[in-house]
Amino acid sequence: MNPIFFSKKPERLRKRRRNKEISTYEGPDLISRLPDDVLGAIVTLLKPDQGARTAILSRRWRYVWRSAPLNFDDGLKSVDFSYQHIQVISQILAAHPGPARRLATRSLDLGRNISLYDHWFRLPAFDALQDLLLHFPLTPCACHTELPASALRFASLRLLDLKNCSFPASSCCGSLAFPCLTYLSLRGVSISEELFHRMISSSPRIEAMVLDTNSGHRRLRLSLPRLSYLAVADNSLPCRKELEELVVEDAASLERLLLHELDNGMSVRIIGATKLKMIGYLATGFPIFVLNNSIFKVKHFIPASLLKTR
If you count DSSP H runs as helices and E runs as strands, how many of each does the chain have, helices first? Predict the structure, then answer.
């Protein structure tokens, strides 16, 4: 027999015992010794279901999740959705007293669940909501479902991201003021010209804006001194041409302008863009583009430094 084999067997046994001791060793719980506000910040970064599960770790953790701000994000696509998720979402929102910082849903159809959404939006936990992301699945009909007016009640919003829906009638929207809003994204959204201008005039802190294939308006005139990023796209069919003219006044802070899929002859006019660094475009056609007093027609990404005004 090989003596080397027998000489190594005790060593393997010692390693096995040592690994077993390491795996069963329980040291001091240093994380639980952290202050409540630090623990709350950690739990807030977890997914809602994971954060709720921390309550069973120990007595120390029992109330951490309920006392920490709620960042709710379903993290689902419409193809992953099942109606069991409605119960889960409702249970989480009912169990957490707030405040909630973020509400993001990407899976639940608006048309069949509008009363449920309206109930969620009215919860006191969302009174100081900062981020609202609502991406609704596409529906077979051409018209998008109208948002309940309660979805637009959050004056504390810093981020508003809507997709595949319609704004309520102007008379139902109240003041529609978002004085803290810094990011606005509307994609596949129907909103009247009057309502859009009212919202923009009451949101002077917007720094970034995305407008993608929206409807209900033909001319937009923006005056946002802090706007540094603007992306505009229009994939609508020529027979359904919506946006015809976009004017950005007082564009002193604008640095990046991205124009995509604007093949329907829309005109873009930028006034006072002294800090503009980049104009981007990725499609085959291009609308009339007026920068201050100069008219351009380009088809590719170009640095703004090459656009010399007359």
Answer: 7, 15
Q: Decide which of 68 and 209 is more confident.
A: 209
> Is the pLDDT score of 34 beyond 80?
no
Q: Which two tokens stand for residue 222?
A: 């923006």
Number of Cβ within a 10 Å radius of residue 285: 13
Give the tens place of pLDDT for each residue, 133-181. 999 887 666 568 899 999 999 999 999 999 999 998 876 777 789 999 9
Residue 83, both tokens = 């109606």
Rounded CA gap, 29 and 164, in Å? 47
Looking only at the bridges linking them, the beta strands covering 289-291 and 294-296 are: antiparallel
Q: Please answer whether residues 177 and 153 qualify as being in contact, where contact means their C-beta atoms are separated by less than 8 angstroms.
A: no
Query: Rounded to the nearest 5°, which phi and psi values hold at 202?
Result: -100, 10
Q: What is the pLDDT of residue 310?
A: 37
* Closest to 51 (Cα-Cα) out of 92, 14, 2: 92
Half-sphere exposure of residue 264: CA atoms within 13 angstroms, side-chain side: 19
pLDDT in tens, 213-244: 898 888 888 889 999 999 988 776 554 557 78
Closest CA to 268 of 303, 230, 240, 237: 230
- Judge whether 98 and 70 are in contact, CB under 8 Å: yes
Contact 270, 257 (CB under 8 A): yes
Indicate the residue type of 21.
Answer: E
Report the C-alpha gap between 230 and 201 in whole angstroms: 16
